């Protein structure tokens, strides 16, 4: 049951094959068993069970609320959740319990979704590995998959297995791991430069970044306001569309959401791709791209072509400026956004009371990690009066050029762009931390970040396993607010590639088995 | 959620405190201060010796002062600029604070339509160009009463620009000559107010009250077109009246709804402008003119003594700049021509509609008063200077047959004098317009003398609820209508004061006044002096 998609389990709930409380309990027990993955910062067990009971009552009365009623979901710990601690994986917000729900959280709850907990991330979502949070790194469930372990056994012997676990990617690694390890059916991430799509690719699931302005940011603790978008992580494209249908639409609390009334996103099954034009941006073929990912990318292009789509090479000439441009804009907004964390109204406050300035300084030194402090420092440098025109204004202009690259390509008749999501499959933690956060983020965001500059929708879809038995994802980028068209194409592609299900037997050998749970489920169903 | 905070940070900015202590004891300080300032009004450059270098070695060198103003007016609106919190003065601390006002992470600004309309209306009233597209920016500085660490303002592209404000200064003997001056308005921008820091020296802590944090402000930037404190104060007073007429701000300085920063420099005419300094948070009218003039004099003295003027930058200016506010899209306004077809009226603001709704401005009101009642220009200023006085005046006029000039004199001299003495506002007066009108009618019909009328007025002040007629009859203040009786009194007085009668007959012009006074005294002021004089003259010549 836990291995099913959201749509499947929703159907099972409707048919009474399982009740919301049973489903919730199963997920809770798996969350506990997979605790070593460190996917969750807070498990909201009591709240979840209560919500599941409410849902169960609705099902019994025959007025369930919709596709999400009774469905266990998880939320990245940078979304405000009323009454539930929201930490951003930072000392600064340890113990901070928001008095309100983020709009996206509220919309999930209004549809009867059951909130299992808050998922781990890089501190304040600054990172691409989910390794730099105060609660420790998230472990990629694929580290414990049968597929990966078998490949490793063939290659190397006698190595310490435990120390070779893989990163999830980030910064929404907790959400990706939670969905990938079957502890929930959908999770919210956030996506500022690829933070939803990157871990989705590494964890073998679908990671969707909606168009900027389609989904409310109210209650999302910001990284870069002008690029942040709540992201959706699910096991298949249809599920992402279902969740999007619930989240999308104008929010009076977020002035950057579009005014058009939201409509449900029902994806048709595309049978004919011959009218599609797929663009392959030539600038995305970089030397750092692993040959395996490159070959999956080209196979995917061939697939479209063989099915009759028009596949053309396109140019996004300003791509190479994206990283440095992002660095300036991101750190500047970070410096501004982080100014509110002064220890006065909420969050951490140090014991130093010599003066207000000393209190500010010590509070912020204790509260933020090096990555956050480094970005604040850089951002304040760019925002200095004497630097503003040379850095911030220029970066904004470059951003416009990058956005225009996409506009030009889409105006030339391209419907969807096809690119890699990441340079390679997930790497072991020990490998990953050889580089600092900044270098890593710059490398890992290379295919995903320009999309945020332009506010476009993009989705990472798992394609296949690498030689190492690890998932590889490819990214589709669509026109602004053509999220539905984008997902329709992604759904077609998903169906063609038939990405394998993760086999977590070894994981379960350590902690008991998914299949045991499955058995229990069927037993309980019989009773 | 009064967050105790440590002392030691807010050195340069005590305005939260200043606005409380400056004039809270004198509720109407703002208005009264300005009334007198208008009377003294003279341009320093032309008439005051202040700007002349008195002990200068180059005595021929005159100094000219250049004064510009930044005025912050709190917008009169039910809720704050970007949040739904209510706006009230003197509410319990931290009782009007939304999640956004406390800068809880994840909260976003939502622009208050009323504040935008107030800005547009003010811009139109001040002859500004209204920008159909304006932008919001963050201005960064660390202050405990600025919870987000930045203020949302309009630095790059404000809502209104290039306006003007006309104000009048009375000059000449008896300030009978009214000169109209104009100051250019650089821009009007929408921005957030900060909270208040209360420094508890005793316990060495700072208490934060966020009730005011996020209240909408109109920052009106006046170009340095003024040359002394008097001009600045008068311009501010005119702006205050305009804001009050529009209803876009209550503009009560005592409650901090109108706060003024001045930038000041001096130079020799014809030479480049001098280094300017800032005098901040002038939130009392009494101090505005004085502080500016003091600073002008200080700068002159410094320069006379061969010193330099140092521009002491604001203590909170960390040179951290501005950044676009990413959570607010550009603010777009329309006029009837550009209004998109089928636009939801709730979602758009039509500048032309606001133009149509503009009320009568103070300058127009004054002009009307002069035309309608034939009163003097300076009286038209005086009538508008006090809250509610004009309405009082007009209500009296409606109900009395007395001449408008008589009414003006009574309202501005006697009535206002009584109020000032007792530090009362017009609406606190125990004498209502209809009561005063009745009194003036009695005077007009010559039922009572002018002196008796003043006596009645005083009595009205003490014994609320009595009508002037009641007081007149109780105190027997009616003018003596019985001429024979008056003749008898006059005769008796003359009999009793032969020396004065003699003086009068010898041609001492003052002597008859003495006789008149004596008669009035005997009649308890109930006789009309002109009638007395007639009788006396008749009797003296007989």
UniProtKB/TrEMBL annotation, chain A:
Subcellular location: Mitochondrion
Active site (record annotation): 76 (charge relay system), 171 (charge relay system), 195 (acyl-ester intermediate)
Start and end residues of each stretch annotated as Disordered: 146-167
GO CC terms of this entry: glutamyl-tRNA(Gln) amidotransferase complex; mitochondrion
Domain named Amidase: residues: 25-145, 166-487
Catalytic function, reaction form: L-glutamyl-tRNA(Gln) + L-glutamine + ATP + H2O = L-glutaminyl-tRNA(Gln) + L-glutamate + ADP + phosphate + H(+)
One GO MF term attached to the UniProt entry: glutaminyl-tRNA synthase (glutamine-hydrolyzing) activity
InterPro entries: Amidase, Amidase_dom, AS_sf, GatA
EC number(s) from the headed UniProt entry: 6.3.5.7
NCBIfam families (alphabetical): gatA
HAMAP family recorded: GatA
Name under which the protein is recorded: Glutamyl-tRNA(Gln) amidotransferase subunit A, mitochondrial
Name of encoding gene: QRSL1
TrEMBL record, chain B:
UniProt EC number: 6.3.5.-
GO BP annotations, alphabetical order: glutaminyl-tRNAGln biosynthesis via transamidation; mitochondrial translation
EC category name: ligase
Localization terms from the record: Mitochondrion
Domain Asn/Gln amidotransferase: 391-540
Family: Belongs to the GatB/GatE family. GatB subfamily.
HAMAP family: GatB
Name this polypeptide is given: Glutamyl-tRNA(Gln) amidotransferase subunit B, mitochondrial
Source organism (scientific name): Panthera pardus (Leopard)
């Amino acid at each position: 049951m836990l291995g099913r998609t959201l749509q499947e389990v929703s159907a099972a709930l409707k048919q009474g094959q399982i009740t919301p409380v049973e489903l919730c309990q199963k997920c809770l027990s798996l969350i506990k068993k997979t605790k070593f993955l460190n996917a969750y910062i807070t498990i909201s067990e009591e709240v979840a069970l209560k919500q599941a009971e409410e849902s169960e009552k609705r099902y019994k009365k025959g007025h369930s609320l919709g596709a999400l009623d009774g469905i266990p979901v998880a939320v990245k710990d940078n979304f405000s959740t009323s009454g539930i601690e929201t930490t951003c994986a930072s000392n600064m917000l340890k113990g901070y319990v928001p008095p309100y729900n983020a709009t996206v959280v509220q919309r999930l709850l209004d549809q009867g979704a059951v909130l299992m907990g808050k998922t781990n991330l890089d501190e304040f979502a600054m990172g691409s590995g989910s390794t730099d949070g105060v609660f420790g790194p998230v472990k990629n469930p694929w580290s414990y998959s049968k597929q990966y372990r078998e490949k490793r056994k063939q290659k190397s012997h006698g190595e310490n297995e435990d120390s070779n676990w893989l990163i999830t990617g980030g910064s929404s690694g907790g959400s990706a791991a939670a969905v990938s390890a079957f502890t929930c059916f959908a999770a919210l991430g956030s996506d500022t430069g690829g933070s939803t799509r990157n871990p989705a690719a590494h964890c073998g699931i679908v990671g969707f970044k909606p168009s900027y302005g389609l989904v409310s940011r109210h209650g999302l603790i910001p990284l870069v306001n002008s690029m942040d978008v709540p992201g959706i992580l699910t096991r298949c494209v249809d599920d992402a569309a279902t969740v999007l249908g619930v989240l999308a639409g104008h929010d009076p609390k977020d002035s950057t959401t579009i005014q058009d009334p939201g409509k449900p996103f029902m994806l048709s099954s595309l049978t004919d791709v011959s009218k599609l034009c797929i663009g392959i941006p030539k600038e995305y073929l970089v030397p750092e791209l692993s040959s395996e990912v490159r070959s999956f990318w080209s196979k995917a292009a061939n697939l479209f072509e063989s099915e009759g789509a028009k596949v053309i090479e396109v140019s996004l000439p300003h791509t190479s400026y994206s990283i440095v441009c992002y660095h300036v804009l991101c750190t500047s907004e970070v410096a501004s956004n982080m100014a509110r964390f002064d220890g006065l109204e909420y969050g951490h406050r140090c014991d130093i009371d010599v003066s207000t300035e000393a209190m500010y300084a010590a509070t912020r030194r204790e509260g933020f990690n090096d990555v956050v402090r480094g970005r604040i420092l850089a951002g304040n440098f760019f925002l200095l009066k004497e630097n503003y025109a040379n850095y911030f204004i220029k970066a904004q202009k470059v951003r416009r050029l990058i956005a225009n690259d996409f506009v030009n390509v889409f105006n030339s008749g391209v419907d969807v762009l096809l690119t890699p999501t990441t340079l390679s499959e997930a790497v072991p933690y020990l490998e990953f931390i050889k580089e600092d956060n900044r270098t890593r983020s710059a490398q890992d965001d290379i295919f995903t970040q320009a999309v945020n500059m332009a506010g476009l929708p993009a989705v990472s879809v798992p394609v296949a396993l690498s030689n190492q038995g690890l998932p590889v994802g490819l990214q589709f980028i669509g026109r602004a607010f053509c999220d539905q068209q984008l997902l329709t194409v992604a759904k077609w592609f998903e169906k063609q590639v038939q990405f394998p299900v993760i086999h977590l037997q070894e994981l379960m050998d350590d902690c008991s088995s998914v299949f045991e749970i499955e058995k229990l489920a069927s037993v309980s169903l019989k009773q | 959620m009064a967050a105790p905070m440590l002392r030691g940070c807010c050195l340069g900015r005590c305005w939260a405190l200043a606005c409380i202590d400056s004039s809270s004891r004198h509720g109407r300080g703002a208005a009264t201060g300005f009334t007198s300032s208008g009377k003294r009004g003279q341009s320093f450059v032309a008439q005051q010796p202040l700007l002349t270098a008195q002990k200068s070695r180059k005595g021929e060198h005159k100094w000219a002062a250049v004064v510009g103003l930044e005025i912050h007016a709190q917008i009169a609106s039910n809720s704050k600029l970007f949040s739904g919190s209510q706006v009230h003065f003197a509410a319990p601390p931290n009782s009007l604070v939304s999640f956004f006002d406390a800068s809880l992470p994840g909260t976003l600004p939502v622009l208050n339509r009323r504040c935008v309309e107030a800005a547009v209306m003010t811009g139109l009233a001040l002859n500004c160009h209204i920008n159909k597209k304006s932008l919001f920016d963050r201005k960064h500085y660390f202050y405990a009463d600025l919870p987000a660490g930045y203020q949302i303002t309009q630095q790059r592209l404000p809502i209104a620009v290039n306006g003007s404000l006309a104000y009048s200064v009375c000059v000449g003997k008896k300030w009978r000559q009214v000169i109209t001056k104009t100051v250019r308005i650089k821009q009007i921008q929408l921005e957030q107010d900060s909270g208040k820091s209360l420094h508890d020296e005793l316990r060495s802590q700072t208490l934060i009250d966020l009730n005011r944090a996020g209240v909408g402000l109109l920052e009106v930037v006046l170009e340095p077109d003024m040359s002394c404190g008097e001009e600045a104060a008068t311009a501010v007073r005119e702006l205050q009246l305009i804001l009050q007429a529009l209803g876009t701000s209550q503009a009560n300085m005592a409650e901090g709804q109108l706060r003024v920063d001045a930038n000041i420099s001096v130079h020799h005419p014809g030479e480049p402008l001098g280094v300017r300094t800032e005098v901040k948070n002038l939130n009392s009218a009494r101090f505005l003119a004085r502080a500016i003039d003091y600073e002008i004099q200080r700068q002159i003295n410094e320069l006379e003594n061969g010193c330099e003027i140092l521009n002491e930058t604001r203590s909170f200016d960390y040179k951290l700049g501005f950044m676009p506010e990413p959570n607010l899209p550009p603010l777009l306004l329309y006029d009837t021509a550009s209004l998109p077809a089928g636009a939801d009226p709730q979602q758009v603001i039509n500048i032309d509609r606001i133009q149509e709704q503009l009320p009568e401005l103070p300058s127009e009101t004054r002009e009307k008063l002069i035309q309608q009642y034939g009163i003097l220009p300076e009286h038209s200023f005086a009538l508008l200077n006090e809250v509610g006085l004009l309405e009082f005046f007009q209500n009296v006029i409606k109900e009395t047959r007395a001449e408008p000039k008589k009414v003006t004199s009574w309202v501005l001299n006697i009535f206002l004098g009584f109020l000032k003495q007792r530090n009362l506002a017009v609406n606190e007066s125990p004498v209502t317009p209809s009561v005063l009108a009745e009194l003036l009618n009695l005077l007009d019909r010559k039922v009572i003398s002018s002196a008796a009328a003043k006596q009645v007025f005083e009595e009205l002040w003490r014994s609320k609820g009595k009508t002037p007629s009641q007081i007149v009859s109780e105190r027997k203040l009616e003018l003596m209508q019985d001429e024979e009786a008056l003749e008898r009194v006059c005769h008796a007085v003359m009999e009793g004061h032969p020396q004065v009668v003699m003086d009068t007959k010898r041609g001492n012009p003052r002597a008859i006044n003495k006789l008149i006074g004596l008669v009035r005294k005997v009649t308890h002021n109930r006789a009309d002096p002109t009638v007395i004089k007639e009788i006396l003259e008749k009797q003296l010549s007989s």
